[in-house]
Amino acid sequence: MAHKLVAQKLAQIGQSGVLRFYDDLEVAGKEKIMMQLESLDLAMIAELIETQVKTKAAIALPQDIQPAQAYARTPQGEQKEFYAKARARGEELLNQGKVAAFLVAGGQGTRLGYDGPKGEYPVTPVKNKPLFQVFAEQLLGRARTHGKPIPWYVMTSDANDAASRAFFHRHGYFGYNEDDVFFFQQGMMPAFGFNGEMLLVEDDSLALSPDGHGGSLRALYKSGALADMQKRGIEHLSYFQVDNPLVQCIDPLFIGLHDLTGSEMSSKTVRKAAALEKVGNFCIADGRLQVIEYSDLPEELAKSANPDGSLRFNAGSIAIHALRVSFIDRLNAGGHLSLPWHRAEKKVPYVNAKGVTIKPEKPNAVKLEQFVFDAIPLAENPIVYETDRAEEFSPVKNAEGPDSPDTCRRDQVRRACRWLEAAGVTDIPKLNNEPDCNLEISPLYAVSKDQLVAKKPRMVAIKSGQSVYVEK
């Protein structure tokens, strides 16, 4: 019966071709493609085919693009009192158990030469802890400080869900209470031929790919994660992605600024490394705060400078956000996520009508994604807060070169050195002004520089080339 109902819906939208091999499939194959089709909103698919696939809409840039004004990392003058109130408010919300963490972890470690979820990749300089453990211990450290558990929502993908869950189970959830970890999968979207037909990658499978990090907000709703937050009384969600071990998973000051300003969605920014750095740009566009991709911001604007020579557009997006749970609920009103779709033409292998696999040499298909930062202009009172790249942003994206394991471990050691020196450890060996040793601070001991300073760590002299793990 379910098969006939799906077949009827497909016929209504002109997509019966995806079932052309159905009658010849084994039971497992029939179940597989039915499960894929039942997970799709076919009415939405039909609309997208007409508006996004068959039609290549021109990207219209806003008429008026101005630099965004960010809250400074270090407050000045009267702002100091407001920041003190914001930090206190963030800590109060944590003490009340009203803040949760949201990790986007659907990626694989393929580009790093690792066969498995990226969250499993060993990344710390001394203990080689995997990314998942780095975040788990940091959240546990925060929870212990504030006396309340921090619910942790982990979005996986179809490709790594089972492996990610098994990894957590195998490692005892890194000390986390299993009941406070909520796994759910990112949504998938089919690839479309230019004629609008959904493509098959196998006789029993659609050509599917993740629906973009913006789809995470839909997945929160569809998975029941949002309902779980509401049941727990969670008001704010701290959003971060799996490839950045320097991130503050929960930042009381940032959460407090977000709450006191009445912001529905807040974002962290860093000053760009160069005018054309490949990061999104926070801008005020036609009067609304939003992110314009590096590929869409006109080069003359990207390179434009202030009188002192600094970049005018110098607020780079690093995919760290705070969102009100009520805002996510509002975005999903009526069961449809109110974010725009982005169209990309790609080379997608597919099975043709004769059952032959075709590997195209040029783009043959359209993929559709949604981006989480497109929620910003839909939010009330969105704000941007500037943080320090050296303190909070060193992602692991590439096997070598920039944003690689080597640069990330280097940046972790540099930060640990700064924290220790601030705490009074002054005899750290240096070579060419760089730490000449490996340093790692356990998040279970200190999750911030201020916390480390307050603990006044007692350490024996560190020797050149030594590896030191600070845990007490």
Describe the 3D structure.
The protein is α/β, with parallel strands linked by helices and 472 residues long. Helix content is 31%, strand content 20%. The chain has 14 helices and 23 strands. It has helices spanning 2-12, 27-38, 42-53, 79-95, 131-146, 161-170, 215-223, 225-232, 252-260, 299-302, 325-331, 389-392, 405-422, 449-455, and strands at residues 65-67, 99-104, 152-156, 181-185, 188-190, 192-193, 200-202, 205-206, 208-210, 236-241, 265-271, 281-285, 288-292, 315-324, 342-346, 350-351, 357-358, 365-369, 383-386, 430-431, 434-435, 438-441, 467-470. Strands 4-3-2-10-14-11-19 form a seven-stranded mixed sheet, sandwiched between helices. Strands 1-12-13 form a three-stranded antiparallel sheet, with no helix packed on it. Strands 6-18-15 form a three-stranded antiparallel sheet, covered by helices on one side. The chain is globular and about 70 Å long.
